[in-house]
Amino acid sequence: VEAVTHMKTIVSELNALQSFSSTKLKSYAEKINASYEIVKLTKDKKSLPVPNFSAGGIATPADASLMMQLGAESVFVGSGIFKAKDPEGMANAVVEATTYFDDPNIVCKVSTGLKKAMEGLDISQIPEDQLLQKRGW
Length: 137
Fold this sequence. Notes:
Blueprint: H1 2-17, H2 22-31, H3 36-45, E1 53-54, H4 61-70, E2 74-75, H5 79-82, H6 87-99, H7 104-111
Parallel strand pairs: 1-2
């Protein structure tokens, strides 16, 4: 899941900030083109100064629960729900799994008996001109 990779990177960088001295924090802020104050706030809060909406490959209750366990504050779903065999059932299960992400019994219960999730698409099957990371300047 693409979102898992991004979430792990965010958590790793948040953890790394904890060891930064004031000088290193200033240098890091310049490197990422952010204000020192925002980077310092992020270090002090040990979280991003904005809600972290995780998206990208979240198609099942287990995906949603995992993202929350990794530190996301919310999840954003789209085609993962709408392309499931039972969108309403999948949406309800994802909401429950997001709400009760830290209770494996509830996540298991809401994941049981669901119709088929959205079909995945391997990145190697996407034509290069349709890859978002290849767009722009």
